Amino acid sequence: MCNILPVDNQTITQNITAVTVNPFAGQRPGTSGLRKKTREFMQPGYLEAFVQSAFNALRGSVSGDFSKSTLVVGGDGRYYNKEAIQKILHIAIGNEFGRVMVARGGLLSTPAMSAVIRRRKAFGGLVLSASHNPGGIEADFGIKYNVSNGGPAPEDVTERIYEFTQRINHYYWFTCNDIDIRQEGKQTYADTEVEIFDPLADYTVLMSELFDFDALREFFRGGFRMIFDGMHGSTGPYAAHILEQQLGAPKGTVLNGIPLEDFAGKHPDPNLVYAADLVRRMQASDAPDLGAANDADGDRNMILGRNVFISPGDSLAVIAEHAARYIPGYRNGLAGIARSMPTSTAADRVAKSLSIPIYETPTGWKYFGNLMDADLCTVCGEESFGTGSNHIREKDGFWAVLCWLSILCGTRKSVAEVMSAHWERFGRSYFQRHDYEGLDLSAATQMSEELRPSLPALTGKDFGASRIAAADDFTYTDPVDHSVTPRAGIRLALEDGSRVVCRLSGTGTQGATLRVYLERFSRQYDQDSSRMLAPLAGSVRQLLRLKERFHREDPDVIT
Ligand code: VG1
Ligand code: CO
């Protein structure tokens, strides 16, 4: 069928038509799939062109024949999720996939997608999500493709998809009524079996294999209290099922657990700014022992104790420190730890103490896949509230919550006590990320262009409370396939061990977002982060001349 010439709306089989479509500009997947304004996605042919381009790009790997391939489909439930799933179904059947598995109701978290692809040995999956970005007709939508190891498509695949989007001229469409995805079951359309499956099943089994559910059940029975904020994304049902039903946590443990198309008008982003309700509850005098939140598609997490916030870099370090002892799935120890380059070096010190390697990768989960497939690392994390392990190939928000729950259960310490014990032993990396959103794209690009050649000359210059020891634009060479990713972020290493990283976001949908990452190490662990990092923040503002270029000095979001 791939050899068919593009003839206007030509009928291929009885119900399959090759529908003419023109290429859309800008369908290049970013850090995590194609992310655009919802209205852009809703243009006639837009989603169809991208999905068909993905299939065209992937067709080569199955010698032009998808008849033995299983495609998994699901999303975070945001506005346009249902319509997009219907379109994907019609196109997947039009492309003669052997089997399409659709999550019941169309709701599937990103980590559950990864688990399903791996357990069902699927060819790949399409996740409909713009992650933590708001949802709604005036907000954001997205689609990402995951490959057969369960992880995000690597760059060579996304680039091939992009090439196809630039010269697409038709897509294959199976004509039928909307397919009912509300009930589990199987139905055949043309040569494709469509299976509606329970989105909670595989993921729950996987978690029960990694964690000691009996011990956790006992822990709740003994009076341990936690709250989990589903932020009206896709994870509420997973959390309610596992925490309240399987582990016996009281009803009401899960907040905002019902998925909503607009996430109740909020950012489904688990950080101190957007999960303000949860933060307030964790500061109350009767606060529970643990507070946690996940983003809309369930791959991000935030961990809170009573009056304490655990920064993602610290969370990764603490999980790595305790995993072998307190989590059955890791009892044989860790092969290594990986973190994205801007993420704090807290995990590096744990890796050193465990005598295991630490890997530093560009931003984006796709870079961890090769390391995990080759058994080089077991746990990985990003400063952007992402933590995970080799149980799947995506970051896993709820897994991180179960890790903390297991650590608290095993140590019988409070979140604050676990954290101070860690800092006491390893010292503390004070860390902040400053985001400047909605910047003029060309001015932001120009800033990076100007900065790059000036980097070598920065060595030896005063910066913050120290001096610049090295400055470069990070180039990553994958240790497994030796692929090279240049321009992964400008980084300054200071003589006192502090680090500053600047890069432009690859997930935004409007203008440019500049991210500035600040890190300073100290043995004293009871200081205020903002105060500790103020000298670095001031110097970086000067270096980037933010006021002059963007008429801005203060970041929009600090996390
Ligand atoms: C951001 C984060 C990055 C994360 C990506 C996807 O990318 O910085 O660490 O992997 O979002 O996260 P960027 O290019 O905007 O900095 V999510 O939860 O979308 O899947
Ligand atoms: Co996400």
Summary of the model, kept short:
This protein has 559 residues and is of the alpha+beta class. 33% of the residues lie in helices and 25% in strands. A hairpin with a 6-residue loop joins strand 13 and strand 14.
List keywords for this structure.
559 residues, alpha+beta, Alpha-D-Glucose-1,6-Bisphosphate, Chain A, domain 3, TATA-Binding Protein, 3 domains, seven-stranded mixed sheet, seven-stranded antiparallel sheet, 17 helices, 28 strands, 25% strand, globular, disordered N terminus, binds alpha-D-glucose-1-phosphate-6-vanadate, binds cobalt (II) ion
Q: How does this structure look, described?
A:
- The longest helix has 16 residues, at 529-544.
- Helix 2 (46-59) packs across helix 5 (155-167) and helix 10 packs parallel to helix 11 (346-354).
- With 559 residues, the protein is α+β, with helices and mostly antiparallel strands.
- The protein has 17 helices and 28 strands.
- The protein has a 7-stranded mixed beta sheet, sandwiched between helices.
- Strand 23 and strand 24 (484-485) form a beta hairpin.
- The chain folds into 3 domains: 10-199, Alpha-D-Glucose-1,6-Bisphosphate, Chain A, domain 3 (3-Layer(aba) Sandwich), CATH 3.40.120.10; 203-426, Alpha-D-Glucose-1,6-Bisphosphate, subunit A, domain 3 (Alpha-D-Glucose-1,6-Bisphosphate, Chain A, domain 3, 3-Layer(aba) Sandwich), CATH 3.40.120.10; 428-558, 2-Layer Sandwich (TATA-Binding Protein).
- It is globular.
- The protein is 33% helix and 25% strand.
- Cobalt (II) ion is lined by residues 110, 131-132, 295, 297, 299-300.
